[in-house]
Each structure stands twice: as C-alpha cells, then as structure tokens.
Q: What sequence folds into this?
C-alpha cells in the first residue's frame, strides 16, 4: 500500500505502537481509546498488531498486521527465538536474567519503528514511539508535541531519567538527513 493511500498529507506528527492479543486486551485497547479521545485528530496513529483483531477505528488510526508487513521480524524471531542470549540471559555465563539482553522481547518495537520511518519519511515531520501501555489522561495539544519534537539537526528526543532513558516515548526527526 502506498504511503499516500495510508496517510493524509502533510503530517506533522505520526505515532507508532505495537501489541499482541494479550497486550491488546490488558492495556492496548485503553491506549488506543485514550489516544483517540485525547490526542489531536491530525496526529496519525499506526498500530502494528500481532495476531489481533483491533476493534477500534478512526480516520487517523491505521492498523497493520505485523506478520504481513514485518517479514524480517519473523525471520529474526525464527533465527534467534530459542537462543538464551537473545531472551534475556547474560552472555557473561552467570545464568542470570537481565532485560538488557532480552532482544526477542523488544524486537517488535525496533522493527515497527524502522518500518514506520520508511512509511512516513517525506510525509511527516516527526515519528513518535509510544508504548502501548500508555494511558493518555489529559488532552495533548499539538504545541506540546512540537515542544518535544527533535529540532533541526537532532535525530531523536526521549524522556530522560536517572538510571535508564525512558523509551516509552521517543521522537524521531523525519526531516533529518540520516
């Protein structure tokens, strides 16, 4: 499907998220509903759904079947899905689980963001990754999104915290010459 068929143009902000069936039932549905209620209508939301029949619909909501549109994700999972080092077990040999090594758990995010960048570069200014367990409790003005967007030569922005960066919200500059 061509980008022009997916999105209204031009776009300032596009948001992307992903979830599986259990995630949709537990938190994804609420994420979608609060997004559609509280975010500006001119902000597109792309959902990469893993074996999920998403019930919500709106002019600014695009649901993609992640199995159909992310074949390299499936290839990665098939290749490394049973490898302990790709599933959170440290290669240091201590046998301890460490989420920093859990590549399989985080692959959906990486492949979805990469695909969404390809789909929206040249169509939108900023792509925002939003964790699917995010609940929007207050209206999100476009000026707030503009304020958090990466500037001119910045490739990305994120919410910082002491131990690890907060990767539940990451903004990518689609005008950057990367």
A:
């Amino acid at each position: 499907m061509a980008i022009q068929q997916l999105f209204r143009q031009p776009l300032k902000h596009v948001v992307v998220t992903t979830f599986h069936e259990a995630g949709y039932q537990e938190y994804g549905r609420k994420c979608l509903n609060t997004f559609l209620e509280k975010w500006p209508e001119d902000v597109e939301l792309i959902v990469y759904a893993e074996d999920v029949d998403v019930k919500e619909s709106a002019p600014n909501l695009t649901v993609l079947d992640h199995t159909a549109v992310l074949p390299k994700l499936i290839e990665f999972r098939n290749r490394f899905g049973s490898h302990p080092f790709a599933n959170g077990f440290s290669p240091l040999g201590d046998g301890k689980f460490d989420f920093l090594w859990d590549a399989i758990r985080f692959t959906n995010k990486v492949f979805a963001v990469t695909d969404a960048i390809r789909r929206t570069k040249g169509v939108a200014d900023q792509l925002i990754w939003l964790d699917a367990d995010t609940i929007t409790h207050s209206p999100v003005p476009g000026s707030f999104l503009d304020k958090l967007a990466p500037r001119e030569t910045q490739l990305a922005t994120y919410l910082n915290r002491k131990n690890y960066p907060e990767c539940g919200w990451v903004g990518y500059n689609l005008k950057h010459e990367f």
